[in-house]
Amino acid sequence: MSKFVKSSSSLLVWLGLALIILIFDQLTKVMVVGYYKLGDSTVLASYFNVVRVHNEGAAFSFLAGAGGWQRWFFTGIGFAAAGFIVWMLKSHPGQKLFSFAMACILGGAIGNVIDRLLYGYVVDFLDFHGSFLNPVFSGGHFPAFNVADSAISVGAACLILDEILRVRRAK
Questions:
Q1: Enzyme catalytic residues
Q2: Which domain, by its residues, includes 159?
Q3: Which value, to the nearest 10 degrees, does the dihedral of the CA atoms of residues 143, 145, 151, 155 take?
């Protein structure tokens, strides 16, 4: 099998994973938008609620109150990141952990970009809380997040792990 065919088939696997993440992210957000009004909440456990929250900023609502320009700024960053990630996936077809990480980040980034384009904000709904979070988070609530955010976080953790393993192999 030629290097191009192997590289292309590997790329399709990772793009497929990103697509699965994107679809799951968007389906969950459609359900939340369809069944919840802004601020509505359902308690599912003593430490977990489903709640509809709108995030006009980035992670932890960074720049949420910036006046509207951040919508296009973060959308542009999302598109640029997606292009860069696809290029990285094409450039490193044999690195499975790295490619898994990039596919997770790609699916999550596109999921949040779609929200910004459709709504002007990102729909968040996963709300974890507990008294053990009080010292770090107001009211003991970790900021609400979504499937896309989770995929981005898993991808970032895998990138760190991939780098640690790469450095250890180099020694």
A1: 124, 149
A2: 3-170
A3: -20
